[in-house]
Specification:
This protein is 9% helix and 39% strand. The protein contains eleven helices and 42 strands. β14 and β15 form a beta hairpin.
Length: 1006
């Protein structure tokens, strides 16, 4: 109720501020704020260094090489000011990217990749990326001072924005338009250009804290910046900045909204590996000496080995889905385990698991990754030969992240991990208790008494699994600029950038102790008292007890003896070498002004290498559940790009400008790509401007998408059925042909992959009826063909007729055994939307009021998976495990007041709802739940900030703030993935899990 009233008040404030716009003076700005907010189309006042400014106040902006006024331009440019960053207590580039309404809602942040991931996401340890207009992180070009930076060393695809030296940022320019005609590949969704300060003088220090009301998950920042020399008066400037930021860990168990046990709302987890193990039937092994050679207590699953009478009481269904003693009549109940719950066989459409328990993996996962990031910048610039400048810039970062997720699930199998709980002198008491509990409901097990018990177990004593990733980046740029002849200037530069990452195993990983055929591996370490090496030896000896949460001292010592902590998981390096040269200046005069031209050349060399781990070599002992990617190991792959471009601005008559650009890129491995862009601006009346553009673009595949090997992963979910036998592929236990299937999933590169091409169009209007009021509305469309995709299992199942070659079948039985999910050029994507920006201000009460809104409305998002197939249904607001959610509407709105002494700002962030996931029982229509919500609610939060200005001098500020003012939890959403066991009851692609937080930031300049 309080939040609802606040929304009304904020909306009213915005309305009053905007209609009250009129003649007013400039807003007061503290000296430390270098780019001020304003009621302009870009959202800021043009405030730049003299070196980047033409005589008439025009500047170089993102998306063009011709100087122009960004607030009177055909380019749909948004500029994020220092003031806006401070107002929203933004602590990192990742938080800034998530603030942008034009940024998609994909799995591009640390929280989205904190749990178990598969496929392309496995290389995202420590990565935060941008995703403009939902086109994907690889289709957004990220620049630092208008030049490229290296892609993340592990992913080899997207730039990690957290490497940006945030302490030195002057402004951030967001071009919401295609720009391949200027920059080449990747600039399909748009361009984000981080602009640093260039001529700082003095010494400044900053300290900030962001602490949740619950006292956990705190974020801290400290930074310093110093500079000496006046470029205008002394002919030089030297400056440097350094910043250190650390995010403390936050577990799912620290937040009540993280709860996978909400069956009344349609959510319950499928993970039956529980802290007190669930017993399973398992076939006998033919391996000589195997623990499974004589069979197990619950028999097998092959028809000849099924234990007669082991059926769910009152049904004819075999109890093959697991039996947990806690869930049997007279048992303590699954809820007696922390995070435990009774398995919901109706929701999962799996009667065979009626007496199993499940465990909430989401509570064990980290929802804010701990990360420590050091960034730095050093820059020296000198004026030579009067008007020429030479600069040397070095930027870099060192980030250390720790990705923690749920404890290992240990499961018996008949291939490479043949383990079961034996009955011997050490285990007799526990074994008999388990046997007696099962026999009371399933007396048929008496025939197998004393046979070992196969199980699925969540090893709490093993500790949470952890990857520690260290990423180091560096970029060195040598640049020169200056005049050539009358009105013409040049810009030249050379740069080298590198991102190098390495992940090592932390806690929770152990040597398996077996070979691929299940036999003991003599090269693995053996714990004292165990009958074999690794985890397998500890389990088959009974030293580790899967039917108890608490383990003996001998078991804990045994785990320490077979630990793999510290082993290298994998590492990668991405390097970019670039040389560029451009010139720009006037050509001749037209009725509307001077015609101008720019032209440039660009040479770029990129290389990427990915190494696996010595711990995963053929002769090394296997580490249990470690996601080694040796199959994807790449020696350095290189790509060279040569490009030339030109741009012409023609003011054909007063108020009308036509701009044309053309770029030709020569890719050695993909041939030549030519991309034009035409944009137009017309101001028929001073308060009104219309603008539009058309361009083409392209994106080449990443090295991984081409060269990765094929990884085989077993599918663990229960949400797929064979689409040939069961049209639609939705499991339904009441239909024999629609039983759930668990095929092997093949992922990896495709050497035949080609580039994707795009056509971009935009048209908009800007209204400026008064000096302190501005509003713009832009329509945009992005049409991408030959899209580079990693199709999901569900997409392939739903379109099985189009991709029959991707379903691998047993030639004898025609059973589905594998699904090929390697990269593919698949069909096309059509996306359309509207971008709204409005600012209004008025002077009153001794200061200035400013209000504004930035919003994105998605009109269309549809795909087709082959060129000849029809487009599928709308993907706006449709849940998916990977990719972009396509929220219909997103906006940020604010109202602020500033005078000489204080700035007060209230901000609203709104993210629309979307279609919820439905688990198999609800999806098949076999069960309903009264509180199941088909649609996830919108996520609306408010931030309040108060800055005290000019404390002692004009550059001393103290800012106090409250983020998520009304302590709104993320809306309930079913995000659990039965294949990986990740996800749960909230959506990290949309919401912030921290809750209400209090921020303090102090800035002092000497």
């Amino acid at each position: 109720m309080r939040a609802g009233k606040a929304r009304v008040l904020l909306g009213g404030s915005l309305f009053v501020a905007m209609i009250a716009a009129g003649q007013a003076g400039a807003q007061t700005v503290s000296e430390g704020v270098t780019t001020a907010e304003a009621a302009t189309p870009t959202g800021v006042a043009v405030q730049t260094t003299p070196a980047s400014t033409a005589d008439d106040g025009e500047i170089l902006v993102t998306g063009s090489r011709i100087k122009r006024d960004p607030n009177n331009s055909s380019l749909p440019l948004q500029i994020i000011s220092n003031a806006e960053i401070e107002r929203n207590a933004i602590a990192s580039p990742e938080q800034l990217i998530s603030l942008l309404t034009s940024n998609g809602s994909g799995a591009d942040n640390l929280a989205s990749n904190a749990d178990v991931t598969t496929g392309a996401q496995r290389g995202t340890n420590g990565l935060s990326a941008a995703n403009l207009r939902g086109q994907g992180a690889a289709a957004t070009l990220v620049l630092l001072n208008s030049r490229r930076v290296a892609a993340h060393g592990l992913s080899g695809a997207a730039v990690d924005v957290n490497q940006i030296p945030f302490a030195a940022i002057e402004r951030v320019e967001v071009l919401k338009d295609g720009a391949s005609a200027i920059y080449g590949t990747d600039a399909i969704g748009g361009v984000i250009n981080f602009i640093t300060r260039t001529d700082y003088k003095g010494v400044g220090v900053m300290g900030a804290s962001d602490i949740t009301e619950q006292g956990d998950g705190a974020i801290y920042r400290v930074s310093a910046i110093a500079g000496f020399g006046d470029l205008d008066d002394q002919g030089f400037n030297v400056m440097g900045a350094v910043a250190y930021r650390w995010n403390n860990i936050l577990f799912g168990s620290n937040r009540d909204f993280v709860n996978g046990n909400q069956p009344n709302r349609g959510l319950s987890v499928d993970t039956r590996g529980t802290p007190i193990a669930t017993a399973f039937p398992l076939n006998r092994s033919t391996l000589q000496g195997s623990t499974l050679g004589g069979g197990t207590l619950l028999g097998g699953t092959a028809s000849a080995q099924v234990l007669a009478g082991l059926v769910i009481p009152g049904t004819t269904t075999a109890a093959s889905g697991g039996i947990n003693p806690l869930d049997l009549p007279g048992g303590a109940g699954c809820e007696s385990m922390d995070g435990g719950m009774a398995y919901d066989d109706a929701l999962w459409n799996n009667v065979s698991a009626r007496y199993a328990c499940a465990w909430d993996t989401g509570r064990a996962a980290v929802i804010q990754q701990p990360i420590k990031t050091l960034t730095y910048l050093a820059r020296a610039v000198a004026r030579v030969a009067e008007d020429h400048q030479i600069s040397l810039e070095v930027t870099g970062s060192n980030a250390n992240s720790a990705k923690l997720f749920s404890n290992a699930q240990v499961s018996s199998n008949t291939t490479n991990f043949q383990v079961a709980y034996p009955r011997n002198a050490l285990t007799a008491a526990t074994y008999d208790a388990v046997y007696n509990a099962i026999a009371a409901t399933f007396p048929a097990v008496a025939a197998n008494r004393n046979k070992p018990i196969a199980f699925r177990w969540r090893c709490i004593a093993c500790g949470p699994r952890e990857y520690e990733t260290d990423t180091k980046t560096i970029r060195v740029t040598l640049a020169a600029e200056g005049p050539l002849w009358q009105g013409w200037d040049y810009r030249a530069g050379g740069s080298y950038a590198k991102s190098e990452s390495s992940s090592v195993l932390g806690s929770g990983y152990y040597y398996r102790g077996t070979l691929s055929n299940g036999a003991y591996d003599p090269s693995a370490p053996t714990a004292a008292g165990a009958i074999g090496p690794g985890l397998a030896g500890l389990l088959n000896s009974g030293i580790l007890n899967p039917f108890s949460i608490n383990q003996s001292d001998a078991a804990l010592a045994g785990l320490a003896a077979v630990s793999a902590e510290g082993a290298t998981l994998y590492g990668g390096r991405y390097e970019v070498k670039q040389i560029d040269y451009s010139i720009a200046g006037p050509l001749f005069r037209l009725p509307g002004g001077k015609a101008q031209m720019a032209a440039g050349i660009d040479f770029r060399s990129e290389s990427y290498s990915f190494n696996g781990s010595a711990a995963a070599a053929a002769s090394a002992p296997v580490i249990f559940l470690a996601a080694f990617d040796n199959v994807n190991a790449l020696r350095a792959k290189n790509r060279q790009v040569k490009a030339a471009y030109t741009e012409v601005l023609l003011p054909l008559f007063r108020g009308f400008e036509l701009t044309g650009a053309l770029r030709v890129d020569d890719y050695g491995d993909f041939g030549t790509s030519t991309n034009p862009k035409v944009s137009v601006k017309y101001r028929p009346w001073e308060p009104v401007m219309v603008r539009g553009s058309f361009s083409t673009g392209f994106r080449v595949p990443t090295f991984n998408q081409i060269f990765n090997g094929t990884t085989e992963s077993p599918y663990s979910g229960r949400d797929l059925a064979d689409p040939v036998r069961c049209p639609g592929g939705i499991p339904n236990t009441t239909t024999p042909a629609c039983q759930a299937v668990q095929p092997t999933i093949l992922t990896g590169g495709n050497p035949n992959l080609g580039p994707e091409s795009a056509r971009m169009f935009s048209a908009g209007i800007v209204i400026q009826p008064a000096p302190k009021f501005s509003a713009s509305l832009d329509f945009w469309a992005i049409n991408v063909d030959d899209t580079i995709q990693l199709l999901t299992e569900r997409e392939l199942i739903d379109n099985a007729a189009l991709f029959s070659d991707r379903f691998r079948r047993d030639p004898t039985t025609n059973e589905l055994v594998a699904i090929d999910r390697t990269w593919i050029n698949a069909g096309a994507r059509r996306t359309q939307g509207l971008e709204l920006t409005a600012r209004g201000g008025v002077d009153a009460f001794g200061g200035s009021f400013l209000a504004g809104i930035d919003g994105t409305y998605l009109l269309k998002k549809r795909e087709k998976l082959t060129q000849n197939s029809p487009y599928g249904p709308s993907l706006i607001g449709v849940f998916s495990f990977a990719g972009d959610l396509g929220l219909r509407w997103k906006h940020n709105a604010f109202v602020s007041y500033t005078n000489e002494a204080v700035t007060i700002a209230l901000t609203q962030q709104y993210r629309d709802g979307y279609k919820n996931q439905a688990l198999p029982g609800i999806l098949a229509g076999t069960v309903t739940r009264a509180d199941f919500n088909e649609d996830v609610k919108p996520y609306v939060t408010y931030n309040l900030a108060v800055s005290f200005l000019n404390l002692g001098n004009k550059a001393t500020r103290l800012t106090l703030g409250v983020k998520n003012l009304f302590d709104v939890d993320p809306p309930f959403a079913i995000t659990y993935d039965s294949n990986t066991g990740s996800g749960g009851s909230w959506e990290p692609r949309v919401a912030d899990p921290r809750g209400r937080a209090f921020t303090v930031q102090a800035d002092v300049k000497f």
